[in-house]
Write a structure and sequence with these properties.
Number of helices: 10
Distance between the termini: 66 Å
Strand content: 25-35%
Helix content: 25-40%
Radius of gyration: 26 Å
Low-confidence stretches: 1-14, 16-30
Order of helices and strands: HEEHEHEEHEHEEEHHHEEEEEHEHEEE
């Protein structure tokens, strides 16, 4: 014989089942009716990522990506490039990131490389917009340090002939200035390379004319906590930059490496953009060994955004360990 309580529970369960059946029936009746044809957006979120190095805030900035025919550009034994790409589920042309880095030391705002601007096509040139998306304004930048004067690193200094960073001093190696801003070098360059010189001149001459281009000839401090370190070879004046604060370090590598899927495992492989391939190869090998041993943070211009991680030695080459994503700035 059922108790009164059991009967109440049974009644409640029956009502609940009936309500659920009605709801499911209602849903079934409308399941085939489209509420709206939502269009695909086909856009990404703003490209910036922030972390701390000691007391310094570093913001990685995406200038965009560009397709590079790395199978034609890399100088490697036959089949090596295809092998490396396939191993990492990639193919040529390789969609390649162009990254810049904004450093807030607390007293100065420093930009490392300025992106391509309008010099490399419509998929690049977004660095200034990313700075704004990240909470800053181009007018707030105090210093810009250039790893080298290739167009994808300096093109963002100007827009439609006007300087983008009106209050900034640009710092670069004297050897790059003497080479890329020389009318004689432009005249002597092969036709296929003249655009590199013209891009550098268009980007940097407005700052030089305003007294805002400052060069250096040896390793040294650019601003407190950030120093240059020569890594010549990719260009005559290519430099990396070493950021240090409160016992922590990040090394910003510029174009010391381009294609992770090939050049990490085979660091001897060079690229057609290198001015002096043996020198570029030696600089990469020397610095990579040191960075793998120290465990220093590394920031790379052409690794997939945000391009921050560490190098680990493996065999005759290296492995890239991307920085673990964090939703906190720490």
């Amino acid at each position: 014989m059922k108790t009164k309580r059991t009967s109440v529970v049974h009644t409640q369960a029956t009502r609940l089942g009936l309500a659920l059946a009605l709801a499911l029936g209602s849903l079934a009746g409308t399941a085939g009716v489209a509420q709206a044809a939502a269009p695909m957006q086909k856009t990404q979120a703003p490209g910036w990522y922030r972390l701390m190095v000691g007391s310094f805030e570093v913001t990685a900035l995406s200038d965009g990506t560009v397709n590079l025919p790395v199978d034609q550009l890399l100088h490697a034994p036959k089949g090596r490039v295809a092998e490396g790409l396939k191993k990492h589920y990639l193919q040529a042309p390789l969609e390649t990131s162009v990254n810049g880095f904004l450093i807030n030391t607390g007293s100065r705002l420093v930009l490392v490389d300025a992106g391509a601007g309008a010099l490399f096509g419509p998929t690049l040139g977004r660095l200034s917009a990313q700075i704004k998306a990240a909470g800053y304004q181009p007018e707030q930048v105090d210093d810009i340090v250039i790893t080298h004067m290739h167009p994808d690193h300096v093109g963002g200094l100007v827009a439609e002939g006007q300087v983008v960073f009106p209050n900034a001093t640009v710092h670069a190696d004297q050897a790059d200035k003497d080479f890329w801003l020389s009318p004689a070098s432009l005249a002597a360059a092969p036709d296929a390379q003249k655009g590199f010189f013209q891009g550098a001149m268009a980007s940097l001459n407005p700052y030089a004319e305003a007294g805002k281009l400052k060069t250096f000839q040896a390793d040294g401090e650019i601003v407190p906590g950030l120093r240059s370190q020569a890594a010549h070879g990719h260009t005559p004046g290519h430099n990396v930059y070493v950021l240090q604060s409160e016992g922590q370090q990040m090394v910003l590598l510029g174009d010391l490496i381009h294609v992770a899927s090939v050049q990490l495992e085979s660091p001897e492989v060079t690229i057609g953009f290198d001015s002096d391939e043996p020198q570029a190869r030696a600089a990469r090998t020397r610095l990579f060994k040191s960075l793998a041993q120290s465990g220093s943070l590394v920031a790379v211009a052409h690794f997939p955004f945000p391009g921050v991680g560490r190098l680990r030695a493996m065999g005759k080459g290296f492995v890239w360990e991307p920085l673990n994503y964090s939703s906190q700035v720490k």
